Amino acid sequence: MKIFSSVHVETTGLLSELHRMIDLALENGAKYLLVFLGSEHEFDIEELPPLFASLPIPACAGVFPGIIHDEMHYHKGALVCGFTTPLFSTILKEIARPNIEITNEIKQWLDGKVPAGAIVLIDGQSKGIDNVITCIYDCLGPAISVLGGGAGYLDFSHRPCLITAQGCYENACFIISLPVPLALGVRHGWESIAGPFLVTSAKDNLIQSINYEPAFPFYEGIIREYCSEPIDFTNFLEITKCYPLGMVQLDNEYLVRDPIQRHGTAIECAGSVPQNTLIYILNSQPDILIQSAAKAAKELRTQLSSVYEKQEGYYTFTIDCISRQLFLGDQYCKELAGIKKELPNQLPPIGALTLGEIASSSQGVIRFLNKTTVIGGLGSE
């Protein structure tokens, strides 16, 4: 049996159009709705909980910097995904709580059930992201593949971004159980140009000092060797999107961290950077990023053929970092075209532009990534 009953997209950002897409999904037999909502919508998201509560099926939504449909991306609009089965899901609130509390809550929700795969949507600017992902891994184990991304807004303002029939939430996380396993393709394309440097003071996602010097002046001094323009509060993202930070992992790949805001002399990243970690300054070129995304799709195609015997009836989710789209600008359509070309049967990419990406590694560990293309594939039940 197929997993999706239908996928509908609207690009106006109007509540009336979202309502129409939901009605179409219901007409197509949806038993569960997952909505990706572009952050430049034309309505108050507080209108969504009563709408979801009025539906005959469960529904949840995340607000993201953008949505992806085929070879296009949109900062306003919605992607409405209808599933053929009533998926098993939960929301974890206030995720900066102690790990033991979150782990116990996940175990109570699972109640002995073992999902075949999982989608995780999380407030991409919350504290404690890596801790809650560790809790999810501890409960699901290395055999269950996970795909997801960070919800949030294009202007990086921190406000409610996850929505259920019960309300709108920030500092929260959705876990959605899937009835079939996930295959994954993951690539980023960023390379080191300077480092390593020692993070000498950090708390969660805030780097306070590097090599015993205030973090921002140190970082700016390094990238001034490659970029002549000084960084200020007006051009911070315009410059830092080209020079992310990288931490070397056991597989010798960089775990990328995106500098998203400056707080005095400290740097806020999308995702935690542990104290005493060695970091590198990274950079890339548009053609390398575009090629890396295509490699992620090609990797997914290979993984799908190993996970599923039946080589048809696939569905895919593309989770791509908003900063890749900002970096590539008008060339971003080439990245989506390259993904489509490598997907099984040249399926049109669908998904979201995110504040951080979530994927299981080849070793099974779930990681919160930045500036990375993650593509998940599902077969039929």
Automatic annotation (TrEMBL):
Residues 31-214 form the FIST domain. Transmembrane segments: none annotated. InterPro entries: FIST_C, FIST_domain_N. Residues 215-361 form the FIST C-domain domain. This is Histidine kinase. It comes from Desulfobacter hydrogenophilus.
